[in-house]
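> example.struct
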């Protein structure tokens, strides 16, 4: 398979990599789309070299297709998913207060940990959200900043799905740039 490796400010290298083998609790995904946002531009400019390992794979806004998953996960081969990229500790003050995006030990898939700019990617199943069949690949990948992805809690992790919800805080006005929605998106999460 091919991957895009970050080599430092303004340098990426496309090269071969072995297809990863999924571990317990992980799904093997075939990546279909990867969004590029402001964070990725900062990475490209070298502003986040203190967080990105040399030879690392970026890409934290990813739409993929499940190729393999544990039977108990509820995910089947062929299902489309987006990856919720935040890895949090669950125990720090921020996590306990419900502000996991401020976790003291926050790690982001596609920043500090390998991301989706590769053909195949292993991701913990608890980071996957189903994409509704009503959304095409391009819609699901490109409208992520305007959608609120939330867990369905009534039936547990097996029914996790992406639930579209327009966020008025992120709604771009006629005079705003495309970046306005992305900047305001944290208010929606």
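> example.seq
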């Amino acid at each position: 398979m091919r991957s895009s490796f970050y080599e430092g400010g303004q340098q990426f290298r496309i090269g071969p990599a072995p297809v990863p083998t999924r571990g317990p609790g992980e799904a093997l995904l075939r990546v279909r789309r990867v969004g590029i946002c402001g964070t990725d531009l900062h990475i490209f400019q070298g502003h986040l070299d203190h967080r990105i390992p040399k030879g690392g794979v970026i890409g934290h806004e990813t739409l993929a297709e499940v190729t393999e998953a544990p039977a108990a996960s509820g995910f089947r081969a062929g299902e489309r998913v987006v990856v919720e990229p935040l890895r949090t500790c669950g125990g720090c003050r921020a996590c306990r207060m419900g502000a996991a995006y401020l976790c003291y030990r926050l790690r982001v898939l596609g920043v500090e940990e390998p991301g989706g700019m590769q053909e195949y990617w292993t991701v913990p199943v608890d980071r996957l959200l189903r994409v509704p069949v009503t959304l095409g690949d391009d819609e699901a990948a490109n409208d992520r900043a305007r959608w609120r992805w939330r867990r369905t809690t009534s039936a547990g992790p097996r029914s996790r799905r992406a639930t579209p919800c327009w966020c008025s805080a992120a709604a771009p006005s006629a005079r705003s740039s495309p970046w306005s929605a992305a900047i305001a998106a944290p208010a929606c999460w």
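> remarks
Confidence is low (pLDDT under 50) at residues 143-189.
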